[in-house]
Amino acid sequence: MKAIDIRNKYLNFFERHGHKIIPSAPLIPENDPSVLFTTAGMQPLVPYLLGEKHPEGTRLTDYQKCLRTNDIEEVGDNRHLTYFEMLGNWSLGDYFKKESIQMSFEFLTKELEIPVEKLSVTCFAGNEEAPKDEEAAKYWKEAGIPEERIYFLKDNWWIAGEEGPCGPDTEIFYDTGKEPCSKNCNPDCDCGKYVEIWNNVFMQYFKHKDGTLTKLKQHNVDTGLGLERMTMLLQGKKTPYETELFAPMMEHLEKLAKVDDIHSRRIVAEHLRASMMIIADGGRPSNIDRGYILRRLIRRMIRHLRKLEINLEETKDLIYLNIEILKEMYPYLEENKQTITQVIIEEKDKFVATLSHGEREFEKAVAKAEQEGKKSIDGKTVFRLYDTFGFPPEITEELAKEQGFKINMQEFEELFKMHQEKSRLGSEQKFKGGLAEQNEITTAYHTATHLLHEALREVLGEHVKQNGSNITSERLRFDFTHPQKMTKEEIQKVEDLVNEQIQKDLAVTCEEMSYEDAKKSGAIGLFTDKYGDKVKVYAIGDFSKEICGGPHVSHTGELGKFKIKKEESSSSGVRRIKAILIQE
Ligand code: SER
């Protein structure tokens, strides 16, 4: 069965079971600056999992384009992909464990005709926060999975990131038929006998930043089935590269390559596909965030084309071939052919220029080392080549080897880590508070957010903690922990308190100190685990003190009049305020 047939069978099956088919959200999330790419089918559905009404109802199904970059370095082995498609079905406060398990079982055994003997499942073993999921196990048994193939694991809990809707999950495994690696071989083991094919999450809870769990308003089901993996298993293949999604590209690369390296061929095929999907959804290469991931994918692909000794002039034909391979699944790639080609070719040309520039700099470094009678190049030079000229350290290493030079990779790694830490902190500060754009207005809203935070603590109590913040040029949005709806009087008090501080025209000052000192000084701190050693503390007169990356206005008088427009529930135990500043 081809991938597209599995996808269609899936959507049709769930449609027959009362689900509405919804379109895949773009790979680049809309209105969500906190993540770079869509990494799971549930991600675009978070508001609905938290209780907002979905216009299509309470049973949904889709295929979702996903990109996960945490395993980028693993790509090239026989299983990791950055881009993949996730098939999913959701219950938004509709069915729960029983029907979810029944439907999954029926789909696998009847629609895909997988013999029951091939299936094993795992359920949540329980911990101090939530009980063992005996219920899920019972439904599996009723469906036809024998007890000895139902395992209980502590890890069967799913959450995207550190905060959000979550719950116990039950995972379905496919037995590849490999010999067991030991007497205790089971789905938890990594030997490759059992491959996870489907994850059904029973979302009952919300995990807050401070680690506490609260019950969600409704019981949801969120499931995810990796299409490439399922295709590979049903076709009896060992890697996704042997399926129709990659095989024609792999064969073509093998023909073109002068060097036989399957690892490099896979990297080229995988990164080309991922890059094309990102570009088709509007991504462009740059030096930050999403653009940087795309740049890395394209450059890594080019590097491996070079390694395979494939002429880079072939790049265009590789793109065209990939459109042929993928257009049945993603017809819009054809419409975007010109843009995709242009973006990739431009990036390739830039990279080639970088490489020749870097090679010249490398030669200079070699000449200098030779003058000094050294046969090695220090890590600082490798880092400078990388940082200033974008010259990949692997290439420096390659060239050095060719010329009989050693390079100090360890020193490079240390410098690289320091650099990464710096840019990590930088981008966190950017994302913190959803400050996607920074201008005078958003800066004013940022300061107003600090005033609001402190005013809420004074009026409602110190249990108030920031749970999320998002700022646009039109308004601020602030989520905070508080168990009940605010009364009209409380809202008025908070608003008045903020306006009083604005009228006082308090000075906003900033001091850098260690995280410990900041805590001692009484500054409110969030995201504790993400802070570096040194933090900035912004004080607004004597009224508020908060750890924050800024920027802020210099005096509160610049803010205008503060008005709360809305106070509503965000999720259980979390309230949301929307407020505006009016310039008078
Ligand atoms: N959200 C779960 C996962 O990504 C199920 O869809 O595995």
TrEMBL record:
One of its GO terms (molecular function) is tRNA binding. One of its GO terms (cellular component) is cytoplasm. It catalyses: tRNA(Ala) + L-alanine + ATP = L-alanyl-tRNA(Ala) + AMP + diphosphate. Binds 1 zinc ion per subunit. Pfam families: tRNA-synt_2c, tRNA_SAD. The keyword Zinc-finger does not apply. It comes from the Bacteria. Catalyzes the attachment of alanine to tRNA(Ala) in a two-step reaction: alanine is first activated by ATP to form Ala-AMP and then transferred to the acceptor end of tRNA(Ala). Also edits incorrectly charged Ser-tRNA(Ala) and Gly-tRNA(Ala) via its editing domain. It comes from Candidatus Merdicola faecigallinarum. This is Alanine--tRNA ligase. Residues 1-584 form the Alanyl-transfer RNA synthetases family profile domain. Belongs to the class-II aminoacyl-tRNA synthetase family. GO terms for biological process: alanyl-tRNA aminoacylation. The keyword Chloroplast does not apply. Zn(2+) binds at H446, H450, C548, H552. HAMAP family: Ala_tRNA_synth_B (MF_00036_B). It is found in: Cytoplasm.
